[in-house]
TrEMBL record:
Membrane topology: Multi-pass membrane protein
Protein name per its UniProtKB record: Major facilitator superfamily (MFS) profile domain-containing protein
Organism the protein comes from: Cymbomonas tetramitiformis
The keyword Membrane is assigned to this record: yes
PANTHER family from the UniProt entry: GH21943P-RELATED (PTHR23504:SF1), MAJOR FACILITATOR SUPERFAMILY DOMAIN-CONTAINING PROTEIN 10 (PTHR23504)
GO molecular function per UniProt: transmembrane transporter activity
Stretches that traverse the bilayer: 108-129, 135-157, 169-188, 200-219, 292-310, 330-352, 359-378, 384-408, 420-443, 455-476
Length: 490
């Protein structure tokens, strides 16, 4: 196995183009983010009212019942979509894709993720201009979540960066994606609501072309031409025609001078080797390898429950309780993008200079507790917005956990560990919306008999975040760092 040459500079990320590709991919996903929320509610309101509806034209006091009920419908469908795409498809496929990347390379799977973005954008364009039912958006979105490029991108970075500097580079790569999150809403606001979906489609198509042309392979054994020989996999297929089989039965030597018995032995061996190299769902077992891995996996699942549960519910909460509009959401998304960029590109490298990944993990989970409890107590829109911006500090959690695990496995398992880790997070991200939306409906719908308390999901989030803090505290107490803190900057 070839030893990778680590390039511990900021430029290494851009030399591999993964930072640029991540920014483009995330921008393509967020160009339509705010518009989708409004279109989603209007679609379900129209289904109930029997005619075209624009719910944002009504004030909170004048909003008709079908718009209020449509909000619950959209939440139910988005929650179901998240559960299927993340807890089922993401949990099952992310480890498989990660392990496959260790064998066949990172680039093919990153390109596939870009193509999935095109499917999502296409479904929105067809809905807007050809009357395609909005439900197809959920199908396309589920496919996108199942083949997400995030774990593959982190594994690609692990191929190129030394263990001591991975957390900083992970943060920088995620900062590039945050820049895309910030850029997308800006583009969407500039082009206007009428052309948002079309611009998103064109952008995602350009991202696919960019990835095909400029993305580089990072897996060491593929870089030095040590990949499995294609002839080993093709030979049994080439030997399949009836005339070849007849010649071998008659004792006529096959290509290379081999006889029938030799051919059968070689073919059987090739197929066994090929089958052995195919990744399976057993890749998720890497998370159970030791006590540290199990503890970190639990931490990631809890963080996924809180982050995604809040993400789905907070939009509804701000819309219904604090009267957020599409323009307000765009402004908040841009602010969150800027804050995420600052956290991952400036704050995270600064934290790494003075503490290890375990303490960084603890800080991230602690901020999550403050965010959840603060939103539950907020009475003004600006208070909730400020707390959400503060909550971006929790984005240091995944780079910290990813680094702790990446540093504990060999270079030939980077894709497997990142895929399994992302699969665990996906499971939490699918469960979270179910718990949070269910809690929201229990405390906002009179038929269940509970008191009206829309902030109940965030109290639930505070409880889960506190559990995550205790798990992170256990990591800090029980496990020592595998590598000394790096004093080199990026």
């Amino acid at each position: 196995m070839a030893t990778p040459i680590y390039r511990d500079t900021t430029r290494s990320i851009y030399r591999d183009i993964h930072g640029v590709e991540g920014s483009m991919r995330r921008a393509g996903q967020t160009i339509t983010a705010s518009q989708v929320i409004a279109e989603e509610r209007d679609y379900f309101a129209a289904q109930r009212a029997g005619h075209t509806v624009s719910c944002e034209e009504y004030s909170k006091q004048e909003m008709p019942h079908y718009c209020k009920e449509a909000t619950a419908d959209s939440l139910a469908w988005s929650t179901l979509s998240d559960f299927v795409s993340k807890s089922v498809l993401g949990f099952l496929l992310c480890p498989v894709i990660g392990a496959a990347g260790d064998i066949y390379g990172r680039k093919p799977f990153m390109v596939v993720a870009c193509v999935a973005n095109v499917l999502v954008a296409s479904s929105l364009v067809l809905y807007k201009h050809r009357g395609l039912p909005f439900y197809w958006y959920y199908v396309a979105h589920a496919i996108l979540e199942a083949v997400t490029a995030a774990p593959t991108a982190l594994a690609a970075l692990s191929d190129c960066v030394s263990p001591q500097n991975r957390v900083k580079c992970f943060g920088l790569l995620l900062a590039c994606m945050s820049f895309g999150v910030m850029l997308g809403p800006v583009i969407g606001k500039e082009v206007g609501e009428r052309r948002t979906f079309e611009v998103s489609l064109m952008w995602t198509l350009c991202t696919v072309i960019f990835s095909l042309i400029f993305l580089k392979e990072t897996v060491p054994h593929l870089q030095v031409n040590m990949a499995p020989r294609s002839s080993d996999l093709v030979q049994p297929l080439l030997a399949a025609p009836a005339e070849v089989a007849q010649e071998s039965r008659e004792g006529i030597p096959l290509a290379g001078g081999s006889t029938n018995n030799e051919f059968q032995t070689a073919a059987s061996s090739c197929w066994r080797n090929a089958a052995a190299k195919l990744p399976t769902l057993a890749g998720i077992k890497i998370l159970l390898r030791n006590k540290l891995f199990r503890t970190l996996a639990l931490c990631v699942v809890i963080n996924g429950i809180v982050s995604e549960g809040m993400h789905d519910t907070v939009n509804l909460y701000l819309q219904q309780t604090l009267a957020f509009t599409t323009s307000d959401r765009l402004t908040l998304m841009m602010a969150l993008g800027v804050s995420s960029l600052v956290v991952q590109s400036l704050l995270l490298p600064l934290l790494v200079r003075f503490m290890h990944e375990r303490q960084i993990l603890l800080i991230g989970v602690g901020v999550t507790i403050i965010q959840e409890l603060g939103i539950a107590l907020a009475t003004e829109a600006w208070q909730a917005s400020a707390l959400m911006i503060l909550g971006t500090v929790s984005f240091v959690i995944f780079p910290a956990v990813g680094t702790l695990k990446a540093n504990a496995v060999g270079k030939d398992e980077q894709g497997q560990i990142q895929g399994a880790l992302y699969g665990a997070q996906s499971m939490g991200q699918g469960i979270g919306p179910l718990l949070f939306s269910g809690t929201y409906q229990l405390f906002t719908t009179s038929k269940y008999g509970f008191p009206h308390f829309p902030a109940a999901p965030f109290i639930l989030g505070t409880m889960f975040a506190t559990m995550g803090f205790l798990v992170a505290l256990k990591v800090c107490r029980d496990h020592k760092p595998l590598f000394p803190r790096s004093n080199t900057g990026l």
